[in-house]
Structures are given as structure tokens and as C-alpha cells.
Amino acid sequence: MVAVLEIEGLRKTYRSRRRGERRALDGFDMVVEAGQVHGFLGPNGSGKTTTLRTLLGLIRPNGGRMAILGQEVPANLPAVVGKVGAIVESPQFFPHFSAQDTLSLLADAGNLSQQRVPEVLEVVGLRDRAKERVKTYSLGMKQRLAVASALLKNPQLLILDEPANGLDPGGIREMRDLMRDLSASGMTVLLSSHILGEVQQICDSVTIISLGRRVAAGPVAEVLAQHSSGGLRVRLESSADLPAAAQVLVASGVRVDIQPDHLLVSGVDKPSSVTRMLAGRDLYVSELAPITVDLESVFLELTGTAPVAGQHRQVDQSAEVPA
């Protein structure tokens, strides 16, 4: 597939008298293919926003290569900026303008058709509130307005930084459906979000960043499969039979971890063999299920940010990744 976005070896270093030198991006790589919804994930302070701001020419990198729609940026950013829509961090609007006035002003500034204003207001669900002043909007409504402003250009590449921020459950589902519809229409969407359950449902592929370096990338299903144990959860009709069942399975070369009300079994080629082995000893299975991983657990493992009882993880405490 054609790469809409390419980043290779991106580096950005900040220097201050108080903290000294801090590497926000340390040789970061990312590829986003055309027509995909691509999730860009990382803990707070990992370099996500710095990457997006650098990509859009808002920050100058210290090294590396970036390309959008086949054009090297930032050198050729003027040639492609009209094909890119973006929300980065919390967007700000004139509080006394209405949503309609805001988008009309942006359309004029970008030499865009005013016809796009009612179209995007309809898409984000603000049609009936379009003439109210922005200062009366909730956080979620302001976020909808931000998405509308990014869609004005009808871009080929849409970059969204936390688009579900402040949305209610219905709004989150609507945003999910919108991302899918945009992708189906041929638009490429780069989505940065901390709502990992949504990312798992929406995205075709993901890139995970930690301390300025890529720790995982690829189709969502492949990233999950790479971190799946391939194990089984086995419950018996009686929990009292768990030790006996574990002995039977271990004697057959199966790895077993005894839990209070079930067994965690790994090293089995055919799950049905577990049932046969135990039934032969009058031990009857009530549940036999594969152990699946979700994107949240994989993310916490790869970035080293899983909560630890009795400890308070600081913002920059993430997984160290070899160069």
C-alpha cells in the first residue's frame, strides 16, 4: 500500500537550565498507509504531541526525515498543507463567535467554499447549535467544533489528537463511526488517543511510542497476537478438583498455573485434548476458553506503565527501549 505518512529517525532535543537536556524524540519511526485509521499511542510525555507538532512544521526537529503524501516536510509543507487537516492538543476558539462564524472565518482564511461550513456542522452534530456562542459550549461540543474545523478542507490526511476528549458515551460512539466512514471514503486518519478500547475497535494499525522511541508497530491484530500467550483458561465443575487436574496435565507435559477458581494452561496444541485428558480421570471441564490480550494490557506492558501497588509512577517513568 502507498504510505501517506513516513517518519524515519526523527530526533528532537529540548534544553533548559533547570532540567538540562531532554530527548523528546530519539530516532522515532512511523509509517501510515493510505486509507487506514492508524492509532498513535504513548504515555504522557512519550513524544506523541512533539511528533505531531514537528510533522506540521510547528517545531523544528534536530534530525531525521519526514514525508507527507510523498513530499518531504517541512521543506515542502506549503505544497501539502492544503491536503492535511489537524487538531493538536486543546484547540482554542474566539469565545464570542458562534460555531458557524468560526468555521466561516476559517473557510475564508483557507480559500475554501462556504458550502463546507453547514456540511461539516452536520457531520459533527452541531447543526442545531451552530449559531450559539462558543463560550456557551461544553468541552465535548468544543471538541466537535475542532473536528469540524479539521474537516473543512476535506483533507486526504486527517490528524486528530485526542478527538474524544470531553465527549459523552454517545459522542464517543459517533466519533468512532465518523472515523470509520472517513476511512471508507478514502481518507487516511492518524488518531492519537488514550482510550485504548476505542483505538482497538477503530484502528487498522497502531504505532506505540515510549520515551521518544517506537516500541511496537503494525496491524492491531498482529500486535496483539505477538503478545498473546496462546494459553487457555480451564474451569472445572468443582474447584476442589483443580490440584488433581493440574497433576494430570503436568504429567502430560502441559504447563499449568493454578488460580483460586481456574487453571491457566499453556503449551497445548489442541484445546480439545485438555478435555479428553481430564475426562479420562473423571474430571469434567465446565469452561475452556482461550486467554486473549487487549490493547490496553499490551500497551502497559510495552511502555512499562502498569500500576504497581504502593507506588506512584511519575510522568517520565516509562520503559527504556534499546537504541
Automatic annotation (TrEMBL):
Domain of life: Bacteria
The family this protein is said to belong to: Belongs to the ABC transporter superfamily.
The keyword Transport belongs to this UniProt entry's keyword annotation: yes
Keyword Transcription regulation: no
Organism of derivation: Phytohabitans aurantiacus
Segments forming domain ABC transporter: 5-236
InterPro entries: AAA+_ATPase, ABC_transporter-like_ATP-bd, ABC_transporter-like_CS, P-loop_NTPase
Full protein name: ABC transporter ATP-binding protein
Entry keywords, A to Z: ATP-binding, Nucleotide-binding, Transport
Annotated GO MF terms: ATP binding
